Amino acid sequence: MRHQLRSVAFLAAPLLGGLTLAATPALFELRLAAQAQAPAAPAAAPAQPQGKPEDTEVYEPVPKVVTPGPSVGAPPSDAIVLFDGTNLDQWVTTKDKSPAKWTVANGILTVDKKAGNIETKRNFKNYQLHLEWRVPEGVTGTGQARGNSGVFLAATSPGDGGYELQILDSYENKTYVNGQAASIYKQGIPLANASRKPGEWQVYDVVWTAPTFNADGTVKTPARVTAFHNGVLVQNNFELKGETLYIGQPVYKKYDTAPIKLQAHGDPSPPVSFRNIWVRELP
After folding, report:
1. pTM for the whole structure
2. CA–CA separation, 269 vs 262, rounded Å?
3. Domains identified in the chain, total number
4. Mean pLDDT of 179-204
5. How far apart are CA 174 and CA 229, in angstroms?
6. Which segments within the chain are labelled E, that is strand?
7. Average pLDDT over the chain, rounded to an integer
8. Is the alpha carbon torsion for 135, 137, 140, 142 positive or negative?
9. Is the pLDDT assigned to residue 156 strictly greater than 50?
């Protein structure tokens, strides 16, 4: 076959002087066939990395050793335990800083709505928080009037001032989506509804990065939240626009550190309960 192609090309060569490519389709096809049989050019060899492996190895600072808890959700060795089921020594009443008056029984902390919000005695800035909560089985009400509470990741003023991660019965309970369970109240819609049924324990694992401010009170870096609800990612490094307000647009108010606050919401449904609350301070 190769001999025949060469012969045809030789005989046709004198005839190509005034002919266009379109006028010699057979010769064009023969040329393409010959090119297809030509060996492909070898691929360029990959560039070799320069330097030594040691050039990119870092040995300091050495991370501190933290011993995990004996089970999932148990506080690790460097955690500050805020509630272990025995007492409210780490908490005060928000409105007057008196000892917290919610009910502790059988290892569980239950909201006393008449006593009002409670907050930690300590102030925090950046941290990892673990908190477990439960809406009672047989809860009544609908929408926001059904198992309503909240954890304020930074309580910047009395009442409901600060930055709230919503607690609510959102199992088959419709409400505005930026106010359902695991929302950053009135700002961040959760990425999923991971709610369990009333009567079952729910888990929040949260990383809070506090806002920072310039000397004149303007925002230097905004607050950010990453949160998991029952092991499901619901807030992915969400950037807040300011404090979480019930009415109006969010605004920032300068602060440095703040307590963590639990809400005694005034809805008529039975109260929410908590257990196993701990925090790890972060840089």
Report:
1. 0.83
2. 17
3. 2
4. 98
5. 18
6. 80-83, 91-93, 103-105, 108-110, 118-120, 127-134, 149-154, 163-167, 202-209, 212-213, 219-221, 224-229, 232-239, 261-262, 273-281
7. 89
8. positive
9. yes
Give the phi and the psi of residue 73 in degrees, each rounded to 5: 95, -15
Average pLDDT estimate for 11-16 = 40
CB 238 within 8 A of CB 224: yes
State the burial class of residue 224 (Cβ atoms within 10 Å of its Cβ: 0-12, 13-18, 19+): middle
Q: Is the pLDDT of residue 111 over 70?
A: yes
At position 84, the amino acid (one-letter code) is D
User: Is the residue at 271 inside a domain?
Assistant: yes
pLDDT in tens, 220-234: 999 999 999 999 999
CATH of the domain at 148: 2.60.120.560
Rounded Cα distance, 227 and 130, in Å? 10
CB atoms within 10 A of CB 6: 12
Do 171 and 267 reside in the same domain of the chain? yes
Q: What is the largest CA-CA distance in the chain?
A: 109
pLDDT score, position 151: 98
Does residue 251 share a domain with residue 113? yes
Q: Once rounded to an integer, what is the mean pLDDT over residues 131-156?
A: 96
Residue 180 CB-half CA count within 13 A: 18
Total Cβ atoms within 10 A of residue 204: 20
**How far apart (Å, rounded) are the C-alpha atoms in residues 91 and 253?**
24
